[in-house]
UniProtKB/TrEMBL annotation:
GO CC field: plasma membrane
UniProt membrane topology term: Multi-pass membrane protein
Entry protein name: Thromboxane A2 receptor
Biological process per Gene Ontology, one example term: positive regulation of vasoconstriction
Cellular location(s): Cell membrane
Family the UniProt entry places it in: Belongs to the G-protein coupled receptor 1 family.
Keywords, ordered alphabetically: Cell membrane, Disulfide bond, G-protein coupled receptor, Glycoprotein, Membrane, Phosphoprotein, Receptor, Transducer, Transmembrane, Transmembrane helix
Keyword Phosphoprotein carried by entry: yes
Database matches in PROSITE patterns: G_PROTEIN_RECEP_F1_1, G_PROTEIN_RECEP_F1_2
Length: 354
């Protein structure tokens, strides 16, 4: 009786065609060092980016920039916690060589890691789409909001994204889909299979991620076109919103890197469950490693985009044809009269708090 109950409890996370045991896993020093270095690099990068963002938040005087920095802080905290939780489990596996079946016979630990993978995977994509919507509204209808998005509302929106991603990650525990241990046995993730419930959950995960990227692409494209018309058009002398360009550069880079890192995994999951083909564990592992790179690349976007020369370069590109009798110098670049200095936290008569 107890053996039957044990088999049933193992079924939902160890029921693959070739269950992974500790004996079948090839533990190598390279795997342990790779996972440890990868996690340490990501954690240190996100921690450094958080310091940069907090410093910028305290120095800025633009209300729209303050809310945008709160979104970025939420993204950095999410990436940091994702690497901390999943990286700790993976590194522990390679160091201690624990056996999942002995350590977690009831699959509670596997479910926790699977939920973490889905939650920390969807959060950056949903936050990117949320920031794209906020910037789209702020740029195209700057007077539609009486006082822009307040800091408290921005925090509520970040919390709402976390709740949404958390609800999706809980679906397998509610009966929709399941989490299974994956090759090489160091992590758990959603079960990519043709079973109706697993198939439904795979489609939800992949479609939510792809839809978030699509929304980000469309809205960011419209926002960039609008900004170029405003900054480089005939009315550029009356409406200079150079700090908006800086935020859009960051948002575009976030979208591009997220698309490169996540699209292979999301598209592969969707195409696999919709076709008669079975999932290839090695390719899934490769796609997941690509997706994890996103958590390392994101913080360097915030760090590098804080450099004053980048801001002056944006001025040079947008205002190189503008005529000016008294140009203002900025790190070697000449800026037209009336434009805002790109020094962090500075304001001028043209610094309208959109």
């Amino acid at each position: 009786m107890s053996n039957n109950q044990s088999n049933q409890s193992l079924a939902f996370c160890f029921s693959g065609s070739s269950p992974i045991s500790n004996k079948a896993v090839n533990h190598t020093v390279a795997s342990a060092y790779f996972s440890a270095v990868f996690s340490a690099l990501g954690l240190s990068s996100n921690l450094f980016a958080l310091v940069v963002l907090v410093k910028a938040f305290h120095q800025t005087k633009s209300r729209s920039r303050s809310s945008f920095l709160l979104f970025l802080c939420g993204l950095v905290v999410t990436d940091f916690m994702g690497l901390l939780v999943t990286g700790t489990i993976v590194v522990s596996f390679h160091v201690t060589h624990f056996d999942w079946m002995l350590l977690d016979p009831n699959c509670h630990f596997c479910n926790f890691m699977g939920m973490s993978m889905v939650f920390y995977g969807l959060c950056p994509l949903l936050l990117g789409a949320t920031m794209a919507v906020e910037r789209f509204v702020g740029i195209n209808w700057p007077f539609a909001r009486s006082a822009n998005i307040s800091k408290s509302r921005a925090c509520y929106m970040v919390f709402g994204v976390w709740v949404s991603a958390g609800f999706i990650s809980l679906l397998p525990l509610l009966g929709l889909g399941s989490y299974h241990i994956q090759v090489p046995g160091s992590w758990c993730f959603l079960n990519i299979s043709h079973m109706p419930l697993d198939m439904a959950f795979c489609l939800i995960f992949s479609l939510v991620g792809l839809l978030s990227l699509a929304v980000s692409f469309v809205l960011n494209t419209v926002s960039v076109v609008t900004l170029l018309r405003v900054c480089c058009g005939q009315d550029s002398s009356r409406r200079r919103r150079d700090y908006e360009l800086e935020m859009m550069v960051q948002l575009i880079l976030i979208m591009v890197i997220a698309s490169i890192c996540w699209c292979p995994l999301l598209i592969y999951i969707m195409m696999t469950v919709l076709s008669a083909a079975s999932a290839r564990p090695d390719f899934v592992l490769l796609c997941l490693r690509m997706a994890t790179i996103n958590q390392i690349c994101d913080p360097w976007i915030y760090i590098l985009c804080q450099e004053s020369k980048l801001r002056c370069l944006l001025h040079k590109l947008c205002f190189r044809r503008a005529s000016s009798t008294s140009p203002v110098s900025c790190s070697g670049f000449a800026l037209p009269r009336g434009t805002r200095s790109w020094t962090l936290g500075s304001t001028s008569s043209s610094d309208v708090p959109y």
